[in-house]
Amino acid sequence: MNLVIQKEKSIKTKFFKALADPIRLEIIDFLAIGEKCVCEIVEQLAIIQPLVSRHLRILRESGIVTDRRDGTKKMYKLSSIKIKELIDLLDHNLLEELSQKILQEAF
Domains (ranges, CATH) in the chain? Predict the structure, then answer.
């Protein structure tokens, strides 16, 4: 396998692993409406700040969010709105279809 294809697969794997957590999906939904500081995310999700920071680090390392300093605050935003659009492609009908296939294979 050529090196470029291998690198792309590695990036995609990291990206989708980062999406594979309900808290990170909530963070993405919240950031889709605009840039937020950690304190706003903590308040929105009602979870402790160290846990939010851990999830933000994973999202940042996978390229899903970017951050910047604003005085003493660290501000986060989606690196691209296309990320939210991609997640939204998994609409109710597709999720229902996938659920049915999973259930069929389980029995």
Answer: 3-80 (1.10.10.10)
